[in-house]
Amino acid sequence: MRHRKSGRKLGRSYEHRKALLRNLMISLIEHRQIKTTITKAREVQPEMEQLLTIAKEDTPHARRMALSKLASKKAMRQLFTFAPQNYVNRPSGRTRITKLGPRQGDGAEMAMIELL
Predict the structure, then answer these.
(1) For labeling, which of 38, 43, 48, 55 is most exposed (least CB within 10 Å)?
(2) Which DSSP string corresponds to 80-99?
(3) What is the pTM of this model?
């Protein structure tokens, strides 16, 4: 039984899943929107919201916390250039998931996740 077990496994091991979510967050910061499956988008959305909340304050501690989640200095710098000015007055809901329909090859439901 899966009682009290949060998160989706996505058919991957813990390390692979952690790397996948990290790479999705880095791509989302760099491109502002990415196209992925709905389950991956729903899994990365709370992580990204938490990261944007951390980035609202531009302090050295916040930068270290963001760098520990991202492991990319370039993405961390980009995050701290647009997050404090764009999201300071917005308490939540800084990402949007839009359904796109099934993928051509395998029929997986696709979605676009974007930063507002």
Answers:
(1) 38
(2) HHHHHHHSSS--S--EEEEE
(3) 0.87
Give the type of residue at 72.
S
- 25-79 pLDDT, tens digit per residue, is 999 999 999 999 999 999 999 999 999 998 888 899 999 999 999 989 999 999 9
In sequence order, what are the residues at sequence separation of 6 or more whose Cβ sits closer than 8 angstroms to the Cβ of residue 96? 113, 114, 116
Distance from C-alpha of 72 to C-alpha of 83, rounded to nearest angstrom: 16
Q: How many whole angstroms separate alpha carbon 25 and alpha carbon 15?
A: 15
Fold of the CATH domain 14-115: 50s Ribosomal Protein L17; Chain: A, (3.90.1030)
Contact call for residues 114 and 108 (beta carbons, < 8 A): no
